[in-house]
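Why do we bother with holo predictions? Because pocket geometry can differ from the apo form. Keep that in mind while you read this record for glycinamide ribonucleotide.
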Amino acid sequence: MSASLPVAVLASGTGTNLQALLDTVHGAEAEIVAVASDVPDAPALERAQARGVPTGVFERATHASGEQRDLAMADWLAGQGARLVVLAGYMALLSPAFLDRFPAAVINVHPALLPSFPGLRAIEQALDYGVKVFGVTVHFVDSGVDTGPVILQRAIELPDARDADEVLVALRPIEHALLPEAVRLFAAGAISIDPENPRRIICAA
Ligand code: GAR
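The structure, written out:
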């Protein structure tokens, strides 16, 4: 059996997506070697600690700039051996300097069908627009806001949805399946870029 992929996770909040990774791919296809946050009391950090995963806090306020913070974080993650960085509810924008340290190896989960509703409050944006199909996207991170190439997407019809909590409850199981699936594919070397269209990601499961 091939060695498992060393993965770092960045999370700012509750950490249910981190938990999904800890409960599925961790110790199997992947090894979560570090969890970092920009929020010192993020519950995600406790989830990592409960599984013995090293944690780090990189607050904007304790660094000279956002880029300096990101470089310190990149140094720590690289020192932990990370070869894939997963954003699981990480709400700060990563600087190009960070992305350069992990080329084509930073992925994000977003609670909408991109390119619709990027950025913050995606579910609220979708409800305000009045869509009847919601969904989840896992994508590569580039220097834009939720603009990187799409790896996996899954939709759900919720024609009568009225509030964000209701939609979130429906999207949770999708996120918690899709993100581990993307990590499995990455670990298996099954994700590649279509040479004819660099926006198109080929997943050879
Ligand atoms: C998830 O719904 C994730 O898709 C979203 O934050 C939530 C984190 O939940 N991410 C974004 O909106 C990024 N633009 P969690 O802390 O329970 O994993």
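The chain has one domain: 5-203.
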